[in-house]
Predict the 3D structure of the following.
Amino acid sequence: MYALAACFLSHFVLVVASRFSEPQGMGIRNGFASGGVTVQAVSPDSPAARAGIQPGDRVVAVDAQSIADRYHWWLVGMTNELDRPRRLQIERTGDKREVMLTLGRRPWSFWWSKTGLLNLIFLGSQSTYLALALFIAFRRPHDAVARIGALALAGAPSALVWWQAGTFAIWRQLPGPLAFFLAIPRLAGMAVAPTALAFLALFPRRLFRARWVWTLVWAPALLLLPWDAYYHVYCLIYRPERAVAVSPGCRLGA
């Protein structure tokens, strides 16, 4: 119990650290079409503006990986790192050219913006979920139903915060055993749906007892868990340069 609590608390510290150290945005407002990303607007004094990107440019590749759709571009954002140059291949009036774009840290003024305040509110809600989960778990340490409910509460935020830029960069710097230890909350987040369903089926009273029903609840999550762990943990953290190339799924051996 104490080890699992320490695991979730450490994961929350990682989330907070990555949130406050994540890189600024590129400063590009995009439109999506087949075979690339069309730049609709560029924010003044943004990394994109300093790199010379202009409205009307079409981004066709990032770090030599083709951008085919919205999902590819989204993965690019998730693998951005502070002060790591990114090479963008763009098309402008039929000509191809390359630009280098480097992202710095977000200014503190960001946290006073609407988006920044929403991020802070989300962190506050996550801490509330975690505090409530720990309270329930330690208040009823021998109650299996209470432990399932606590796991669902603690795992729910983990399913969302994974996709903030900066998380992967910090994670890669951790020693292997610690990185594995901190992956447990992420795995709990992947299984939050059946965990929550199991809790609702048991509290306040048991709704069913047949084993085949429990099999239907848990079989899809358990079957997909190894794949999710491989792609959402291993691929995105330790092979970010391949994340775009192998999307929407990371193929073994790719």
